[in-house]
Structures are given as structure tokens and as C-alpha cells.
Specification:
37% helix; Neur_chan_lig-bd_sf; alpha+beta; transmembrane helix; four-stranded antiparallel sheet; membrane; extracellular ligand-gated monoatomic ion channel activity; single chain; Neuro-gated_channel_TM_sf; rod-shaped; Acetylcholine Binding Protein, Chain: A; Methane Monooxygenase Hydroxylase, Chain G, domain 1
């Protein structure tokens, strides 16, 4: 009985080793036969008039960063490519029923995807991604990496803005009569949301430019404005409202001018913060930058009126007030300031309402 068990184990181990060795040799033989006289720089078609159709399935993982100042979008995705290689075909019965093999990128032909909207020139691949070939010649390649593309931002309604960034890929190695790029599908199962931007939609368009096939991906994003409302818009609005309170301070206190200067400097600081966030060449100009600028001008006006008011208050009663001073104070009365503040506050609430929609 013990002898039979030992013989059975020996036979099993011998069969397993022989099977593994044969399969390994068969894979090596298959790859050697396929690569024999194969040129990765030549389109893998038997008839030169045949167009290679490259179907691309975009797998989106994340949009880590959008920089309006530098004008770029950073996205992590993999343009999975599918095509048919008419040269890489075999009969599985001749190779231990092998249905698929993997090759290095440099060993066989694959589409050359060049980023056509680059922040820096980038070509897909180069990170040792393998290309899977099936027995019928169907090929699959997934060159995933972090892409940096230029993007034109419209900052008019910042921070309640919506942006559309486009990323284009072009195949420059072959013309559109030889290789054509086509969109297959979007995959967002593993997408990680961005803390500042919400992805509202993805779209793909195929076109021909200078007789080369181009595929364009459009990213529609909406900025999350809650942070800016709480840290910028509401504080500067209440500071603007507080600037008219300077006239409620008693003239004898001597605090009017100091209070007005403090508010004006605070407004100027907020204007510098906004100008650092928004691109300096943004067209059209941001309404928020205009709003902050008007509040700065308003605080300067309040400072000037405070100085004139104190100058007249401390003048001798024997000196007659010039009619020009009376005209200035009539045009810049406290009621006028309140009305202006009401208009400005209404515009702010309009912006906030746009952001909450």
C-alpha cells in the first residue's frame, strides 16, 4: 500500500513538471515564431490599404489638480487601446492551446498616442506596460499615467465657476488613412473625487486634423465654492458694511481716521489674495475682483469723508463753510452710503445664490 502511494506521488510530480516545462517551452516557441521577421515600426496589416481601427476605453482614476494661474489640468487615467494585429495570429492547437501571450511595448506595433494639448510633451507608454495579444490577433494595451494638459479657464464667475478642459491625443506616426482613433466607453468605477472640483460630465469626440486622427476628451468640472464663501466673500462683505459705521463713532474719540485706515488696509489685503488666485490675464475679468476693487474704493472714500468731517468739526465757528464742502457732503451723505451698500450686498447675495444652485 505504501509503495503504491509513493509511486502515485512520483507520477503526479513528474506529470506536473513535464506539463509546466512543455507549456513554458511552448510560450517561448510561440513568441519566437511570432516575432520572427516581425517589424514593430510597420503597420500590422496584410493589405496596406486596410485601416487600423484603434478603440480607446478611458478609465479615469482622479483629477488631482486644476491650476487656473498656470492654466493646466492634471488627470490620472488610462486610455486602454484595442486593435487587431493581423500579423500576430496563431493556431492554439499547435502551441498547447495557448490563447494569449504578452509582449513588451518595444517588441510589437502599438499606436503612438501623443498629447496634443500639452503642458509638457508626453507620449503614452514607457512605463513597462505589457501588450496582450490573443490568438485571433486582438491586442490590448493600457498605458496609464498622470497627464498634465493645458486648459483655458474662464474666471468671470469665480468662485462659482464651471470649467471645461479638453485633453487631446493624436497619432502622428500614421495618417488617418492608415490608423484611426475611436472612442469606445468611459470607466469611472475607481474614480476618486477631488475635494475642490466636482466632475459633472465626460465626453469624447473624434476628428481629423492635418490628415491625422485625433481624439478629444472634455472634462466638465464645477468648483466647490463653500470654502471661498466662508473665508473670503462673507468676511469682506461684512467689512465693507462695517466701513460706514465709522460715522457713528463720536468725533471726540479720535478713532474715526484710524478705524477707516484699518478697514481700507484690510480690503487691500483681500484684493491681493484674490489677485493671486485668479489668472492675471483672465478674460473676461472676474466679477469678484471687480467687487473687491469697488469695496476698496468705497473704503478710501469713507476715509476721505472722515478726514473732511473731522476737519470741519474742529474748525472755528467763525469761519464760514465753503459751498463746495456742502456739495460734497450732500453727494456723499450717510444715506447715499447705505444705499450703495445695499446694492453691493445685493450683488453678493446674487453670487451666493448662483453658487448654491
Amino acid at each position: 500500500m505504501i509503495v503504491k502511494i509513493i509511486l502515485l506521488c512520483v507520477c503526479t510530480i513528474t506529470e506536473f513538471s513535464t506539463s509546466n516545462g512543455t507549456t513554458y517551452e511552448a510560450i517561448n516557441k510561440l513568441k519566437a515564431d511570432l516575432l520572427d521577421d516581425y517589424n514593430p515600426d510597420t503597420a500590422p496589416v496584410k493589405n496596406s490599404s486596410t485601416i487600423i481601427r484603434v478603440n480607446i476605453a478611458l478609465t479615469l482614476f482622479a483629477v488631482p489638480d486644476l491650476d487656473p494661474v498656470l492654466g493646466l489640468i492634471q488627470a490620472t487615467f488610462s486610455p486602454m487601446c484595442f486593435w487587431t494585429d493581423e500579423i500576430m495570429t496563431w493556431d492554439p492547437a499547435n502551441y498547447n492551446n495557448i490563447q494569449k501571450v504578452h509582449f513588451k511595448e518595444e517588441e510589437i506595433w502599438h499606436p503612438s498616442l501623443l498629447l496634443a494639448t500639452p503642458n509638457k510633451f508626453t507620449v503614452a507608454g514607457g512605463f513597462r506596460q505589457r501588450i496582450k495579444i490573443q490568438a485571433n490577433g486582438n491586442a490590448e494595451w493600457a498605458p496609464g499615467e498622470v497627464w498634465e494638459s493645458s486648459c483655458r479657464f474662464n474666471m468671470k464667475f469665480w468662485p462659482f465657476d464651471k470649467q471645461t478642459c479638453e485633453i487631446e491625443f493624436i497619432n502622428l506616426d500614421f495618417t488617418a488613412e492608415e490608423v484611426q482613433l475611436h472612442h469606445l466607453l468611459f470607466n469611472q468605477d475607481n474614480f476618486v473625487p477631488n475635494s475642490e472640483w466636482t466632475l459633472e460630465g465626460l465626453s469624447a469626440t473624434t476628428l481629423t486634423r492635418l490628415n491625422f486622427s485625433v481624439i478629444r476628451y472634455s472634462f466638465k468640472l464645477k468648483r466647490e465654492s463653500t470654502f471661498y464663501v466662508l473665508t473670503l466673500i462673507l468676511p469682506i462683505t461684512f467689512l465693507g458694511i462695517s466701513s460706514v459705521m465709522v460715522f457713528l463713532l463720536p468725533a471726540e474719540s479720535g478713532e474715526r481716521v484710524g478705524f477707516s485706515i484699518t478697514l481700507m488696509l484690510t480690503m487691500t489685503t483681500f484684493l491681493a489674495i484674490v489677485s493671486d488666485i485668479i489668472p492675471k490675464t483672465a478674460t473676461p475679468p472676474s466679477l469678484m475682483a471687480v467687487f473687491v476693487f469697488l469695496l476698496v474704493m468705497f473704503s478710501i472714500k469713507v476715509l476721505i469723508l472722515s478726514i473732511l468731517n473731522l476737519m470741519l468739526y474742529h474748525r472755528s465757528d467763525d469761519i464760514k463753510i465753503h459751498k463746495n464742502y456742502i456739495t460734497i457732503f450732500k453727494l456723499s451723505s450717510f444715506a447715499f452710503c447705505c444705499k450703495t451698500k445695499k446694492i453691493v450686498l445685493g450683488q453678493v447675495m446674487k453670487f451666493v445664490g448662483m453658487g448654491l444652485k
